[in-house]
Amino acid sequence: MKTRYEKGLETLRSYTDEEKGTNHFELMKALEDIAPDLGTYIIEFAYGDIYNRDYLSKQSRALTVLSSLVTQGSGSLPQLELHINTALNAGLSEKEIIESMMQLIPYVGFPSVINALTQARKVFQERTEKALA
Amino acid sequence: MKTRYEKGLETLRSYTDEEKGTNHFELMKALEDIAPDLGTYIIEFAYGDIYNRDYLSKQSRALTVLSSLVTQGSGSLPQLELHINTALNAGLSEKEIIESMMQLIPYVGFPSVINALTQARKVFQERTEKALA
Amino acid sequence: MKTRYEKGLETLRSYTDEEKGTNHFELMKALEDIAPDLGTYIIEFAYGDIYNRDYLSKQSRALTVLSSLVTQGSGSLPQLELHINTALNAGLSEKEIIESMMQLIPYVGFPSVINALTQARKVFQERTEKALA
Amino acid sequence: MKTRYEKGLETLRSYTDEEKGTNHFELMKALEDIAPDLGTYIIEFAYGDIYNRDYLSKQSRALTVLSSLVTQGSGSLPQLELHINTALNAGLSEKEIIESMMQLIPYVGFPSVINALTQARKVFQERTEKALA
Amino acid sequence: MKTRYEKGLETLRSYTDEEKGTNHFELMKALEDIAPDLGTYIIEFAYGDIYNRDYLSKQSRALTVLSSLVTQGSGSLPQLELHINTALNAGLSEKEIIESMMQLIPYVGFPSVINALTQARKVFQERTEKALA
Amino acid sequence: MKTRYEKGLETLRSYTDEEKGTNHFELMKALEDIAPDLGTYIIEFAYGDIYNRDYLSKQSRALTVLSSLVTQGSGSLPQLELHINTALNAGLSEKEIIESMMQLIPYVGFPSVINALTQARKVFQERTEKALA
Question: Where is the Carboxymuconolactone decarboxylase-like domain positioned along the sequence (chains A, B, C, D, E, F) (predicted)?
């Protein structure tokens, strides 16, 4: 039977495209020296325990997380960039991602949505460039 | 051709079950005396313009809004109550609603999720009671 | 020459109508046993130092504070109630207060504004009742 | 009779000085390719419906919006930059803008106010340079 | 060797006084029907993994959590009540708890601190009453 | 007897190491031209009145402030950088600072903690470089 770490790693990989966009592995590597356990918690708890639960599709989980980060404001912009990539890897289209941000205008106002769309535009372009490279 | 108000009213009604749970019409009525235009903006802009856009299903829009309100903390609890009802009317199951809240634990922490689940539990019970009444 | 405390007390009184609405003095009294210095800081720093500065009218200061509390979400509802009263005492009309909340819809979204308007409505009613009493 | 778009465009222009500072038109242009309707909503809803309402002066509306963005924290810094420019175009003086930020110290604490003042300083300098250019 | 659940349960108990104040067990019980795994995650991840780490004393961990909840605004008031109790059970004095809230005035402003102190006052009284009962 | 300004300046200096890391004096200097009183309020109120109170150690005060800024999200990153330096100057170890951020994962979620750890890593490196220079 798989450990939480193995289950989490497998799930995290299914949300990751190492060819395209920034990903959790780079981020965890960058903090490995000062916070070695951080990556373990992300893999075991976030991806092993939570993302592995039933009743919601991968796309719906990605949508839920994206909406939360947009709502948190660009205070979470680096994280937003990461999860726009995750959402695309989970199978959401660029149009669905933009649309989920537009849907938040009446609930968080224009400023946070504008910051999020600006970040989305940047991610879409980077992925196109990487794909063409 | 329908006006924005007519389109919005139709869309809002499709997210409303006046038999069950609290709904936007009660809320707009309560503020009609001091802010008569508020209801018009909710119907024309939020439901007429935004909820009527393409590329996302009703369920996905409800999920996106729910995630945003959970992230805003119980500062938006009265609104959260309203949109848990909206989400159920849009066709999300209780399990999907709970699951979308559980998915946010790694992104907003336990306290906001616990407050949201407490509110969801209250709404589910009220709807059962109204259904039995 | 007046002390900061005397200046602050005078300024705070100019924003207070002990006949109507809740006020800072009740609030400071309620916390006097566990946080005796809190009231001193509110009077000396908030009202003595800050509210006494130049370049903005009393109404503009009240408007700025109100907008901040609406933006903080109903997490600050008890404070919002206090400062809706302060704003009225500073000479803003009910219409101007409602209008400043409506102006925030594109910047914070409907939920926080709806919570704020609900609070404003409550305060306006209480003051009318006290006036009639 | 003017359409909401025409009314909004006229109002937005009255808050814009294309010679000085960043403005909404640049911002909407930048997102036109991925979110073509965003600009329409900003013009029709924010400026056509909301900014055009009665009972508050242009300066008071600008002050209210500025206070909200300062309170939202530097998560909205790009938006704050935009609206410091809007506030100056609406006729608020640099001193009034700084003062409205100082007034928020007791309500949001020093960090958000320091970030806001740093942004204001940057905008004031850029406008002076553009004016001298 | 202890499981994460056993370690977590032991740690959680060391922060709990079932005689006094509200506690996590009541809270988890209340949500058991709709979110049975929530309690497991709180015990295994929050208390088993995180609270069990080295380099910070129990008091310092309680202080850190308290400061975070005060900063989140009264959106987390029910949680704040829980963690004021946790902090007292961890060995912080009432004076230290009040002081940590006063220390936040320059960083979050008066409103959030006033809401937090009001909550602390309520918890202190309830515990005295329970102790006398 | 010392004035509030003298007391505050002395306290602020005890949290400052002008050799290492960014500090309040640079920050106040940068805003002196547009907000000359800001520095006075930081020294008199924040450091003179608040940091000088009893019942909490310097380390505990630094820990409380750090936790608040992490919770405010990277909206306060420039301030967070300042207070990571303040915390080190107050005698907290790098390990204790990292640990206080890890402790917040269950209360604010991974994104804000990841942003904070990234900032801490940057500050630790800068101080090492300055020390070696």
Answer: 36-121
State both tokens at B17: 């079950």
**Cβ contact F109–B111 (<8 Å):** no
Tokens 């912080």 locate to: E92
State the burial class of residue D13 (Cβ atoms within 10 Å of its Cβ: 0-12, 13-18, 19+).
Answer: middle
Residue A64 at interface with chain B, using a CB cutoff of 8 Å: yes
Task: Give the 3-state DSSP-derived string for chain D, with helices as H, strands as E and coil as C.
Answer: CCCHHHHHHHHHHHCCCCCCCCCHHHHHHHHCCCCHHHHHHHHHHHHHHHCCCCCCCHHHHHHHHHHHHHHCCHHHHHHHHHHHHHHHHCCCCHHHHHHHHHCCHHHHCHHHHHHHHHHHHHHHHHHHHHHHC
Q: What digits encode the pLDDT tens for the residues B26-48?
A: 888 999 999 999 999 999 999 99
* Contact criterion met (CB < 8 Å) for E76 and B105: no
Residue E97: pLDDT over 90: yes
Is residue E76 scored above 80 in pLDDT? Answer: no
The answer to whether E54 contacts chain F (CB < 8 Å) is yes
Share of chain F above pLDDT 70, in %: 98
Q: Does the predicted TM-score (pTM) go above 0.90?
A: yes
Q: Where are the domains of chain B?
A: 1-53, 57-133
| Amino acid in the structure at residue D130 | K
Across the interface, which of E37, E45, E53 has its CB nearest the CB of A45? E45
Neighbours of B125 (CB within 10 A): 12
Q: Does A40 touch chain F (CB under 8 A)?
A: no
The answer to whether residue E117 neighbours chain C at the CB level (below 8 Å) is yes
Burial class (CB in 10 A: 0-12, 13-18, 19+), C13: middle
Rounded CA gap, E106 and F42, in Å?
A: 8
Q: What is the ipTM of this complex?
A: 0.95
CA distance to C35, C40, C42, E46, E81, per residue, from C48 (Å): 19, 10, 8, 44, 32
- Which chains does chain F touch, 3 or more C-beta pairs < 8 A? A, B, C, D, E
In sequence order, which residues have a C-beta less than 8 Å from that of residue E132 and are 6 or more positions away? Answer: none
Is the CB of A5 inside 8 Å of chain E's CB atoms?
Answer: no
Which of A89, D101, A88, E2 is CA-nearest to residue A100?
A: A88
Any chains having at least 3 CB pairs less than 8 A from chain D are A, B, C, E, F
**CA–CA min distance E29, chain B (Å):** 11
DSSP 8-state symbol, C75: G
Q: Is A54 exposed, middle or buried (0-12, 13-18, 19+ CB in 10 A)?
A: exposed
* Cα(F86)–Cα(F65) distance, integer angstroms: 10
C-alpha to C-alpha distance for F17 and B25, rounded to whole angstroms = 59
Q: Does D61 touch chain C (CB under 8 A)?
A: yes
Indicate the DSSP class of residue C56.
S
The stretches of chain E forming alpha helices (DSSP H) are: 4-14, 24-31, 36-41, 58-71, 77-89, 94-102, 105-108, 110-132
Residues of chain F with C-beta less than 8 angstroms from the C-beta of E82: none
How far away is chain E from the Cα of D10, in angstroms, using its nearest Cα? Answer: 38
Smallest CA-to-CA distance from C47 within C26, C30, C25, C19 is with C25
pLDDT per position as a tens digit, C19-48? 887 788 988 899 999 999 999 999 999 999
CATH fold for the domain made of B57-133: AhpD-like (1.20.1290)
pLDDT digits (tens, 9 = 90+) for A17-76: 888 877 889 888 999 999 999 999 999 999 999 999 999 999 999 999 999 999 998 566
Residues of F in contact with C41 (CB under 8 A): 45, 49
**Contact between F75 and D71 (Cβ < 8 Å):** no
pLDDT band at D75 (very low <50, low <70, confident <90, very high): low
Name the nearest CA neighbour of D79 among D9, D27, D39: D27
Whether D107 contacts chain B with CB within 8 A? no
Q: Contact at 8 Å (CB) between C47 and C11?
A: yes
Where do the H-state alpha helices sit in C32-93? 36-41, 58-71, 77-89
